[in-house]
Amino acid sequence: MRGDINFCCEDMKQNIKDDGTIHYSDVFDEYGISVPEDNASYVLISYCPWCGKTLPTSKRLEWFEQLESLGFENPLFRNDIPIAYRSAEWRTQCNGN
User: Fold this and answer.
1) Which residues fall within 8 angstroms of residue 82, CB to CB, at 6 or more apart?
2) Which helix (H) or strand (E) holds 24?
3) Phi and psi (nearest 5°) for 45?
4) CA-CA distance, 58 to 45, in Å (whole number)?
5) In 3D, which of 23, 31, 21 has the Cα closest to residue 53?
6) Confidence category of residue 95, pLDDT binned at 50, 70, 90
7) Rounded CA gap, 15 and 21, in Å?
8) Distances from the Cα of 57 to the Cαs of 47, 63, 73, 95, in angstroms?
9) Are the beta carbons of 47 and 60 closer than 8 angstroms?
């Protein structure tokens, strides 16, 4: 997990770090509640379950649109996507940061 996530509250921070109840995807900048039966799945959430703060809007659709515009069909299942799209780097490059 990345160390530079801005947590909305200490409860969110503890639940992401300690037991993985909450999942954070730095690629998509989205939060979700982990599905216990499947380590790779989570249900997206829009608000912090503890403090109620609005969480960032997922960038998943943008990720797919950008990669598809570069010619990558079904990019989620490909190993040859540009390295920047495997982390939050693609978002900072697109925003000029």
Assistant:
1) 70, 90
2) strand 22-25
3) -125, 150
4) 10
5) 31
6) low
7) 6
8) 10, 13, 24, 15
9) no
